Amino acid sequence: MRVPLNWLADYVDLPADTDPHALAAEFASIGLEEEDFFGPEITGPLVVGRVLELVKEEHSNGKTVNWCRVDVGPEHNEDLDDPKDPQPGEERPSRGIICGAHNFVVGDLVVACLPGAVLPGDFQIAARKTYGHKSDGMICSAKELGLGEDHDGIIVLKNLGLSGEPGDDAIALLGLDQVTLDVNVTPDRGYQLSMRGIAREYAQMKGQSFTDIGSPAVAEVNAPTDGGFPVVIEDSNPIDGNIGCDQFTAVQVTGLDTSAQTPFWMQRRLIAAGMRPISLTVDVTNYVMLELGQPLHAYDTALLGEEIVVRRAQAGEKFTTLDDVERKLDPEDLLITDRGGQGGKIIGLAGVMGGADVEVNSETTDIVIEAAHFDPISIARTARRHKLSSEASRHFERGVDPRLGPVAARRCADLLVELAGGTLSPATTQVGQAPEPTVIDLDVARVGNLVGIDYSAAEVTEQLTAIGASVAAGDEGRLSVTVPSWRTDITADVDLIEEVARTSGYDKIPSIQPAARAGNGLTEAQKTRRRISNLLAADGYTEVLSYPFTNSKRDDEMRLDADDIRRQHIRLANPMSEDLPLMRTTLLSTLVELVVRNFGRGAKDVALFEGGLVSTSAGLPAGPGPRHLPGYHPSDAELEKIYASVPAQPYHYAGIIAGNVELPGVWGKGRKADATDVIDTVRRIARTNGIEVSVEADQIAPWHPGRAAKFVLADGQALGHAGELHPKVCENLGLPARTVAFEIDLDALLAQDDLRSWDGALSTYPVSRQDVALIVDAELPTQTLAATLREGAGEELEQLETFDLYTGDQLPEGKKSLAFRLTFRAADRTLKADDASAMREAATQLAAERHGAEVRS
């Protein structure tokens, strides 16, 4: 919120010598943090000048310029165009200045910038030779002085309603010496988006009395009549139980002077506040919005139908807004329409932006002023849905005083009557009713307990009264607080307590180091995440974080089947991007984007991993879950329905390696990543966490059907998959060929028993090793054969390793040879060779029975 300090001084006692930086620090102590300062940008002589002579000169480039003699006052006049040296006592009545604009005549008062001055943008003014003359300064336009975008003509003071004498300081005359303070208004404090709100904060901060210019008890308000412009509220689709428009005020002004211009003082304030002057009627509505906080809209009465109708959009309706963009409407969009007579059209997106059909123009003489109160949620959704943020929507989203409409409408009408010679019609429309004020019961002792300062009941009452609340004493140290209508953010006692702390000054709250609370340290899930992350980082992976949003196109790129459960996404009602409206069901669907981005920026070898949540709509009930108002305590049955409507969000880990897993160097050519790298990564993740996991071949997207492994836990639950990505997936996503990846479900891992604990004694006896090569069917998974050997070998088998795989002409077709090394160790004796051989024979015998394995000699 930009706060011009001279405008703020209209409502509070603001000393003329106020240091804006000191004021910003004071505002920060009550939660209004400084964003920026906009101070004087012009230095040097900028004065009022009177045009004494004007000679139009045509030049060879086809341009006509004015050679002017300008009286800039006795202190600045100097005849530098005269080649002769001036005689003693001779007057120096003017300066010669070249000007290319043609919107002024002899006798006009203009703004002259003299040599030595510096304009916005570090534009330094100096005397210079041009068009055959020495131009000793510049006659200024509004744009050159930072007063607007008008660069077609220079400033003529009479056109701004200003006057002066040659030599007068134009910086002060045009308000270019004023300071504007930009403060950050948090989203829950919409009342601060107005001079009314900022003035109230200043008055309370300084202990000044404050006259509320927006209070119906102070300001003039038109009483509703039967003859006002007809307005009907038809809201058939309330959002979250709230109707879109609960009150609509319409005031009429007739006989406006079409030639009336916005006065300079109003233009200057609008510009300082960050808005562009447009026309008198529009400028007045914007001015009142900035002053009071109530967005307004003016309609040309002659272009309206017989009545205004507030309703929701119908499916398929379209509307062209003032920015000349046709928009497809949603049934949630709240509209302002008309009907009857020549009506029957949409005239505005309520609280966001109007349309061109009934826009006021240079011929408008009669207007209807709209001052309505709209539901913040409805306006916020419409603005985001159409990517159409406006000053009006910004105010409504944050909450507008529901009782402010009649005051703002009358204030706007009075300004138009004053500035455009119109007539205020006594006929006034007011449809709907503002909500009743909120009353909160507050325990005074609770204030001190939460803030850390002992407040008396009198201090609490004083602070709450200063924000506009009505406070009544109750029993046993309690207060009954009626919340002011403009404080839509205050809904509970903790909000009142926050106000007491804020308005008293955050700097008064002591800083006390709390004692560390004894606890159990990290949870088991946190420990597991750290172990996995440390393992992956040590293996050369880099941890990244991707946004959890995706789209159905990514499912197609990853070749997921049409009935794959991973296609059952949760669709966001209000996505950050329309291109990414779905929540991810796998980490790989978003992690691949970061791999592609790294390769796009020149990386050649990438290994990334991420840990995060995924979600799915599978198993959720149709439609939205139950909703309850704040403060309502659901029953057990209602809680079950609420929990049933919340999607499961398991925690996954995923990793991708693209390019070399061992980098080339003096030690060799390096090695490309293959499926075994990520399969080994998952195995070690399970082993590090004391979990038994079996591996079997699988065919599942997005992995290569012949190079993918499925990991199965002891209870039969799937842990995840790893392997090489399908070539078409790599092509679709823009990944290098033979990229490998893994993804596992951490929640499934945590549900297993940790087998790392050891309650026996370590054997001190030596090991005995036996090797065996078995011929089996080529389709038999190595993991299955290894599990059989472990079972047959017995408890004294300490380790089983696969060290060779052979397929070739020396084997029958459809067969392969797998070589295993079996390491045996006994806890109570040294094993003899015969003992180890017997255990090896038992293992191979079981393999022969189950899988038809033959020992290869």
UniProtKB/TrEMBL annotation:
Main location: cytoplasm
UniProt entry keywords in alphabetical sequence: Aminoacyl-tRNA synthetase, ATP-binding, Cytoplasm, Ligase, Magnesium, Metal-binding, Nucleotide-binding, Protein biosynthesis, RNA-binding, tRNA-binding
Compartmental location: Cytoplasm
InterPro entries in the cross-refs: aa-tRNA-synth_II/BPL/LPL, B3/B4_tRNA-bd, DNA-bd_dom_put_sf, Fdx_antiC-bd, Fdx_antiC-bd_sf, NA-bd_OB-fold, Phe-tRNA-ligase_IIc_bsu, Phe-tRNA-ligase_IIc_bsu_bact
Domain (B5) ranges: 435-511
PANTHER family: PHENYLALANINE--TRNA LIGASE BETA SUBUNIT, PHENYLALANYL-TRNA SYNTHETASE BETA CHAIN AND LEUCINE-RICH REPEAT-CONTAINING PROTEIN 47
Quaternary structure annotation from Swiss-Prot or TrEMBL: Tetramer of two alpha and two beta subunits.
Protein name stated in the entry: Phenylalanine--tRNA ligase beta subunit
Taxonomic placement: Bacteria, Bacillati, Actinomycetota, Actinomycetes, Micrococcales
